[in-house]
Amino acid sequence: MFTRAITRAAHGVLVGLFLATAGLGSAQAAPKVGGTLTFGLPTDLTKLDPHKSSAFVDTTILMHVVEPLVTYNKKLEIRPLLADSWKFSADYTSLTMNLAKGKTFHNGREMVADDVVWSFKRLLDPETKNPKRSLFENIAKVTALDAHTVRFDLAKPQPGFLHVLANANPIPAILPKETVDADGNITKLIGTGPFQFVEWKPTQYIELKRYAAYKSPAGPKDGLSGDRTPYIDTLKMVPVSEENVAVMALLNKEIDVLQYFPAKYVEKYNKQYSKQGMVLSEVPGMSWYQVFFGLNKPVTDNPDFRRAVAYALDLDEITRAAYMGHALVNPSVIPAQSGYYTKAQKTWVSKDLKKAKALLKKAGYKGEEVVIDTTKNYAPMYKQAIAMQSQMAAAGINAKVNVLEWPVLLKRLYGKDFQMLSFGIGPKPDPVSAYNYLRLSSAFDVYPEIKALVDKADSTDDDALRRDLFDKIHLKTLDTVPWIEFYNYNYLNAYRDYVKGYETLSIGLPVLWGVWLDK
């Protein structure tokens, strides 16, 4: 069945996973309530509204304030959160969910079925301008059956619908309508999570505080599920985009945790920083980095040009340039740990400048400038863009790297306004969600047969059939090149040794409930 494949996918992650034990080994000691933890982010929050967000950094912050109906454990199995239990209809066209009782919003009001209905109506409303609204477009209707029971009616069968509800980016958060102002905007976010929103000072910090009345799900802490008890009184999340500044801030205890520790500093950590009260953890991840092509733009709308770029690039060299040995080359959006990862998913072209130049000639390329949009807010995105530029030049392609601020890059991506765009995507346990990103290259419009394959995979729970369909989709991308996938990277996190219970999951999210300070 569909869920078994997801379980197998996660098992490989856990087998290959290693975590530094200095912070986790003392987790058996009694947690302490109180204190302030300062968390270093690579960039600032882009939106306070989870229904309008498209940035992974927003999820990192907001998942501590708001919650979805269901979530993932470490094995990437669906587990209860705001919903206690659920049942699909035999044909997967409706899902009935029983909500947890006694869950309160941060304003003290109990969460009920009407809040679920309101939240999904808002999330699906085109006026909300959710950039990932298409992920939820199969929802035909949401109905409150009673105060604690809700039913989702789907436009077509969707066995993987629970993965839509567990999506981490964007979070299909259940919100109270009191959180929006008269214009429908959120300035004071109210959720049901372990921490309450206090304040956002753009470019400076986001402050959250412990929600003392939080009612945690039952069971031990397990990924994003189970015990979510908050111990830290105040979480202060600060953007520190410069790598050397971020490392120095951690060494000087100006921050307590650094979400992304630069790969270039690992050797220095081993020789020096490990003796200065710093702990480094490395988790094999399922996130990926890539380049998108704009199939609706001059030059990059030509498939022979895109094929030429594929032959011009060396994925190994790009991966080393970006992550210095802390990433695994992978030309597929499906990670190697997945039960859906097959020989076909490993298939890609090898660098061949002769073939690249022949395809450029066939495409009628005359040396026109091609722009690669990227950002320095996430260093690997910039580093891989520079590596691409150099390799493309060797094939005779005139590429310009255009550095943008993170919110501007996101606007370009979701507006489909780019020729080439260097980017990274958070993990998607269900490959359907991963392949849905093809729409950002306009691939679904230009190649409707690809969309048909994705839709077919979304409508079945037959593992063998899904595996075959995913192989066909990947081979179609090999032929049409709407994007080029580079690698899955390891999550390098660093924190002070007095931070206890901290971990980052294989899906890339740092969990700050269950964390306490021993100092």
What is the topological layout?
Layout: H1 2-16, E1 36-41, H2 56-62, E2 70-72, E3 78-80, E4 83-88, E5 94-99, H3 113-124, E6 139-146, E7 149-154, H4 161-165, E8 195-201, E9 205-210, E10 234-239, H5 243-251, E11 257-258, H6 266-271, E12 278-293, H7 303-312, H8 315-323, E13 327-329, H9 353-363, E14 370-375, H10 379-394, E15 399-404, H11 406-414, E16 420-425, H12 431-435, H13 443-446, H14 448-458, H15 463-480, E17 483-496, E18 499-500, E19 503-504, E20 510-511, E21 516-517
Parallel strand pairs: 1-10, 1-11, 14-15, 14-16
Antiparallel strand pairs: 2-3, 4-5, 5-7, 6-7, 8-9, 9-10, 11-17, 12-16, 12-17, 13-17, 18-21, 19-20
Helix pairs in contact: 7-9, 8-10, 14-15
Give a description of the structure.
The protein has 519 residues and is α+β, with helices and mostly antiparallel strands. The protein folds into 2 domains: 31-277 and 497-517, Periplasmic binding protein-like II (D-Maltodextrin-Binding Protein, domain 2, 3-Layer(aba) Sandwich), CATH 3.40.190.10; 284-490, Dipeptide-binding Protein, Domain 3 (Dipeptide-binding Protein, domain 3), CATH 3.10.105.10. 28% of the residues lie in helices and 23% in strands. The chain has 15 helices and 21 strands.
